[in-house]
Fold:
Amino acid sequence: MDYRATILLYAELLLALFLLWREGLFRTRAQRIAVIALVPLAFALRYCFLTYETLDYQDWIKVWIESLRTAGAWKGLGEEIWSCNYNVPYLYFLSLISKSQVYDLLLVKDLSILFDVILAWAAMRLVGVLNPDSPARKLTAFILVLWMPTVILNGSLWGQCDSIYAAFAVLAIYLALEGRSGWSVACIALSVSFKLQGIFLLPVYFLFLVSQKVKLRHILVFPLTYILSILPAVLAGRGFWELLTLYFRNTSSIGDGLNYNSSSIYALLNFDSLSTEAGERVGIVLTFFFCCAVYVWLVMEYKRLNNKALFGAAVLFALGVPFLLPHMHDRYFFMADVLTVVLAVSAPRLSVVPLCVSFGSLLGYHAYLKTRYLLPMRYGAMAMAFALILVIAYTAASLTPPEPKKSISSPPLPNNLPEESAKTS
Structure:
């Protein structure tokens, strides 16, 4: 193990401890014991996986870094890399890695672990909005996200970067519920610019607009942030229009199969009798009607929307959209994994929800990492469907009760009226 990569991992551990200290979560003895016992151990577990290479790294990420290294880090950003379907913000990091003498794989994983920390911090802040004055729940959220199996496996073992887009997405929800409209839109734009899966959360922004958590004028921050994110590559020589339409041109890279080891509806129902094109249409129509149904329901209840109901809607989209869409892959429930943990910390009676979602996700991880199925994927899809029903119930229960109607009554009589004189016969 290269000592420089180990030093970086120690620095990320110190960052995690600093963020908890800054949040005031070192004040009590119980907090200090929990942090000292669990946080370093989460990093030690990641350390054990750092040298493990997957085929994704060997066939793709390693090739991209070598291409950047051969062309020159800056110059390489100005050229289209063969087989690369990632947007350029992630390539900026790979470009920096290509200039280092440290084993590429270690730096790729250290980068993902850095965003594991940011993701845990964002989840902690989001719990703080949903449950003010609850330090225990905030600390629980931070530790649970660091210890989530899919978060550990995704970055430190698999070498994937889903924690980057998810960290910006969770920050976006937190900032919206805090009323920091412009920053929220900037963060969701960064989430989408790093990975297309950030769009799973975009539908909730219509409800943020309806509830005035996000101001209409700040919607312009989205295209501005996205353009700024691709600008360095444009200055290096890439075409502006090429990068602006990158996701549209790369839709074929998701594959022709309706399901890729994902616990989606395509694992639950038999679509074998449908062609791929017909299956796509079914999934897109289902997703459209799902989003419309959520909109109609919650827009009709807009006077009762509060932070918890809006957060419930965000979880609905993060879970429901990849559940219904075609061509979903094994890692596409990553954001739902994290948000359902936040949900369970905020509402412990729903602890079964992240268990169901993580179960469905882990079946896909096992299928890729072990090249065999632990259980049929339909079991994961059933768990996802059950979790979706519980999130709908949570969202409904979180709506602010309507104010009781005031009864119309005659005004009270003054108490100083003279007594009525007795009737004389």
Confidence is low (pLDDT under 50) at residues 419-425. Residues 104-130 form the longest helix (27 residues).
